[in-house]
Backbone:
């Protein structure tokens, strides 16, 4: 499972370094803008609103998404699963993740097509009075969903093995290297 | 019988929906005796602002009314031409000019007319909806009557062209959608905005905008009624003919309604204490400054559009001619710059 | 497939996968995709999915969320909550009821600089739980009270639920924050009274005795508490004084917290990194819900369910008070079962046409709705504040739900009723402060 671990490190880097920096940048852009407006009476970050809305915030989300998914931050109802015996619980988990995988394969297909169309049609975004290519940002959506799909497949394999052995498969624990 | 999904990203209270999309759909349904019927979606239920073209091309909807061209971030580069500053123009005048521009057979670039350059490659058919009324310069607080009073003031810009104009004016442009401008104006994030007065109602801006300079138009926003080609080809020639005629009629009706609403909202706001000052009553310094900013905006837009590889100069020139033909005025120096 | 059969199918899918424990966001995606497919067919996906997913994430008003999360995370990591509670602890004279009140006030003050109710509940359970027990409250009540105090983060503005409501209805978020202040303070008062009425005491317990060991309230604790008050002034003063927008207040609040705590040597670069990482992960999770809800909402629009509901509600449109009360009850129930962001994202788009047709003030309704949903943090089966407090204290959550639900029900009746009968409680402040 070295590849899987490596992927975890990559996701951790994307979220903690990439997305974390985005949040820091977002804070600083706003602080500098307000400072410029009230103290210097000038716009220190032209197009700040567009930069946050179109660039920094989407990057933050799609970079943080795979790790948030891997670490199980997503809310769900766990009442039924908790009440079931081991084998039934694992079967249920397999079924639920398999459906989730199908949904995300479909979504990824369409977000991939959308990103590709954005690239071929040279779709642009507006920042201040200028236009910039949008496709590098659009590409982040299929990237994030693709990583989530790999995670789902890994979960399926893990749950399948656990079901076959009749106990949890500790060796392939899905936690990111940093915990 | 054909049933078409027609979609507005704006709510029914907006003049491009209540006074355009609905009357258009009603008229088509009536004139075709129900052979064409519409399932109507409003307020972004099915399409969101600035993504109408995706929905048309993807086949999610058959008709977008309106297709908000200015929000399509660079996709309709020449359509911004209606946002260039003019003098003494209203919606009816500009809508006539815009209809003419869409029908115009002047070749702008590569042997293509405005329609062929701007609309055809998108695999849609389009007609103008009425342009907005004149975009006015409004402030939350006193009108500055000197260049130094204006300098550095944070003002909301709604489009790339506004940003150019505000830069030329020497204020600080802050880009945000109109829906965010109420909060920003009431908190001083911005101290002014450019918007048509008739549009204030949609965002409750009559409560915050206290002073407005009238008589100079920071352009008129234009948008389209659009149907995707696949759907268009399913219509019979008679239906297509009816559609084309109705689209033009409704655009002009819409324009008359927009002009009336602009006056109505202005009177209402004036009654509530909002102050409207004609540009001609401002100091000479301010008049000259705004005229210079207007002319420079034409120049900068032409340069930027040309630099992006589009026929900005030819478009601006043809537009200027049509505006003058319909009775509008250009800011001093624009005619010389365009070599009219 | 007939449309009514399709609706049943979607509803079944939704309920089934929710119960089976699928991620709520995935349930929303699945039900929305299935619904669109059954209603119209595959051709809808091309024009909707890609753009909805990207552009929903590309939203300025929602970009406020991680900034408020960051501010709260920094304060937690800087240990400010410890000092705040210590000061309250000392001021209460180590007596039972005053310490209960001090716990609630700590939760409320924390709430004024934090937007979601689970982190503060956990911290308070660890910190205040043992002390509340020492002065005589039962373990169950002590942890329950910590959960209640923690949940105030969602009740006292700023609140993430309110940010999401504002972003989907375009009601100015600043106005919503100001409107929530009155009900939030009233709710704290109600909780104080509840503490008096419902307080469970271990028989034979004593109070008024200072804890043994070194007295931990030093100058640093008072300085830290003073800093928190300063931060409240910056954030609230900025918003209420009409100087900066809610988004700017979030950024400036987080920045002020960062600078202040670094200066006080309470956080280092590692804390900042962790605070950033935790904030973006929670943001990604919330945004996934928002995006899933967007896809589901598309199906709802196409199916015209909201409009049919509007037709059903026709006879009630003349009495907006009754509609509001019914919807609040519905929201309270939904808040019991679902995560709070999911509730607002699911229900508001469905009921919006009814609200508009009945002429209900969206500001008033939004504040009430956010409040009722926030109470769901305390109620079973999904009550995140109660879960967080019980997990932190390693105590069965079922026990914690007992007192927590008592408080939530009383607040729902008293504060909810007050907001409906006296709308001014919500609308007066926003109409006087811009
Ligand atoms: Na709060
Ligand atoms: Na609950």
Residues:
């Amino acid at each position: 499972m070295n590849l899987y671990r490596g992927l975890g490190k990559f996701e951790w880097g994307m979220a903690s370094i990439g997305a974390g920096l985005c949040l820091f940048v977002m804070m600083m852009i706003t602080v500098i803008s307000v400072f410029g407006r009230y103290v210097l009476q000038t716009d220190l970050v032209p197009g700040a609103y567009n930069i946050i809305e179109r660039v920094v915030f989407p990057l933050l989300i799609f970079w943080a998404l795979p790790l948030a998914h891997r670490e199980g931050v997503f809310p769900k109802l766990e009442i039924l699963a908790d009440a079931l015996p081991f084998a039934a619980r694992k079967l249920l988990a397999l079924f639920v993740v398999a459906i989730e995988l199908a949904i995300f394969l479909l979504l990824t297909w369409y977000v991939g097509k959308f990103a590709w169309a954005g690239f071929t049609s040279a779709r642009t975004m507006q920042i201040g009075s200028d236009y910039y290519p949008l496709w590098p940002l659009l590409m982040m959506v299929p990237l994030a969903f693709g990583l989530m799909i790999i995670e789902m497949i890994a979960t399926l394999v893990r749950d399948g093995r656990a079901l076959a052995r009749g106990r949890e498969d500790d060796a392939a624990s899905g936690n990111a290297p940093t915990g | 019988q054909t049933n078409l999904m027609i979609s507005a990203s704006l709510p029914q209270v907006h003049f491009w929906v209540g006074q355009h999309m609905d009357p258009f759909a009603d008229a088509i349904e009536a004139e075709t005796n129900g052979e064409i019927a519409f399932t109507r979606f409003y307020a972004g239920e099915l399409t969101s602002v600035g993504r109408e073209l995706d929905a048309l091309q993807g086949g999610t909807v058959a008709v977008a009314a309106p297709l908000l061209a200015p929000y399509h971030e660079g996709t309709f580069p020449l359509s911004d031409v209606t946002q260039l500053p003019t003098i003494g123009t209203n919606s009816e005048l500009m809508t006539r000019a815009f209809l003419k521009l869409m029908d115009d057979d002047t070749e702008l670039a590569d042997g293509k007319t405005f329609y062929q350059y701007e609309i055809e490659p998108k695999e849609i058919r389009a007609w103008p909806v009425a342009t907005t009324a004149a975009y006015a310069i409004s402030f939350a607080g006193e009108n500055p009557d000197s260049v130094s009073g204006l300098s550095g003031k944070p003002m909301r810009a709604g489009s790339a062209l506004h940003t150019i104009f505000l830069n030329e004016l020497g204020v600080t442009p802050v880009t945000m959608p109109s829906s965010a401008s109420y909060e920003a104006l009431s908190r001083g994030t911005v101290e002014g905005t450019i918007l048509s007065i008739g549009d204030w109602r949609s965002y409750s801006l009559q409560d915050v905008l206290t002073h407005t300079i009238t008589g100079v138009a920071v352009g008129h926003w234009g948008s389209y009624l659009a149907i995707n080609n696949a759907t268009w080809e399913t219509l019979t020639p008679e239906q297509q003919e009816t559609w084309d005629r109705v689209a033009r009629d409704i655009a002009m009706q819409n324009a008359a309604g927009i002009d009336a609403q602009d006056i109505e909202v202005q009177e209402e706001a004036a009654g509530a204490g909002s102050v409207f000052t004609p540009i001609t009553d401002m100091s000479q310094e301010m008049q000259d400054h705004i005229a210079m900013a207007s002319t420079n905006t034409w120049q900068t837009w032409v340069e930027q559009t040309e630099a992006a590889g589009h026929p900005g100069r030819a478009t601006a020139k043809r537009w200027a001619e049509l505006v003058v033909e319909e009775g509008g005025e250009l800011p001093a120096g624009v005619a010389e710059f365009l070599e009219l | 497939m007939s449309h009514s059969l399709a609706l049943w199918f979607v509803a079944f899918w939704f309920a089934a996968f929710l119960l089976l424990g699928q991620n709520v966001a995935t349930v929303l995606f699945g039900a929305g995709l299935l619904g669109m497919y059954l209603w119209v067919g595959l051709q809808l996906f091309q024009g909707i999915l890609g753009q909805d997913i990207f552009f929903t994430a590309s939203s300025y008003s929602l970009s406020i969320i991680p900034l408020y999360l960051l501010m709260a995370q920094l304060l937690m990591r800087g240990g400010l909550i410890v000092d705040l509670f210590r000061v309250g602890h000392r001021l209460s004279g180590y007596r039972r009821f005053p310490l209960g009140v001090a716990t609630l006030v700590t939760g409320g003050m924390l709430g004024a600089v934090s937007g979601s109710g689970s982190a503060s509940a956990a911290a308070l359970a660890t910190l205040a739980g043992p002390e509340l027990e020492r002065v005589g409250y039962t373990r169950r009540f002590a942890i329950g009270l910590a959960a209640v105090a923690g949940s105030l983060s969602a009740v006292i503005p700023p609140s993430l639920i309110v940010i999401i409501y504002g972003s989907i209805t375009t009601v100015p978020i600043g106005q919503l924050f100001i409107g929530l202040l009155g009900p939030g303070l009233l709710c704290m008062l109600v909780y104080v009274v509840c503490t008096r009425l419902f307080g469970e005491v271990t028989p034979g317990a004593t109070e008024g005795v200072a804890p043994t060991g070194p007295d931990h309230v030093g100058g640093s604790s008072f300085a830290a508490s003073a800093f928190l008050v300063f931060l409240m002034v910056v954030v609230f003063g900025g918003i209420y004084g009409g100087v900066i927008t809610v988004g700017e207040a979030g950024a400036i609040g987080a920045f002020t917290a960062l600078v202040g705590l670094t200066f006080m040597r309470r956080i280092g670069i590692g804390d900042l990194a962790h605070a950033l990482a935790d904030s973006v992960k929670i943001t990604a999770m919330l945004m996934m819900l928002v995006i899933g809800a967007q896809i589901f909402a598309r199906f709802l629009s196409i199916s015209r369910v909201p409009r049919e509901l509007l037709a059903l509600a026709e006879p009630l449109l003349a009495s907006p008070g009754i509609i509001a009360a019914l919807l609040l009850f519905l929201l309270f129930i939904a808040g019991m079962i679902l995560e709070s962001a999911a509730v607002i994202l699911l229900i508001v788009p469905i009921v919006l046409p009814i609200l508009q047709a009945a002429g209900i003030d969206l500001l008033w309704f939004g504040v009430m709705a956010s409040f009722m949903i926030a109470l769901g943090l305390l109620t079973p089966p999904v009550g995140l504040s109660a879960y967080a407090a019980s997990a932190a204290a390693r105590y069965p959550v079922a026990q914690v739900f007992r007192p927590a639900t008592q408080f939530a029900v009383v607040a729902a009746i008293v504060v909810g009723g007050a907001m409906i009968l006296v709308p001014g409680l919500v609308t007066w402040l926003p109409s006087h402060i811009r």
Remarks:
- The beta strands of chain A are 124-127, 130-133.
- The pocket of sodium ion (ligand 2) is lined by residues C 335-336, 376, 379, 382-383 (CB under 6 Å).
- The two ends of chain A are 17 Å apart (CA to CA).
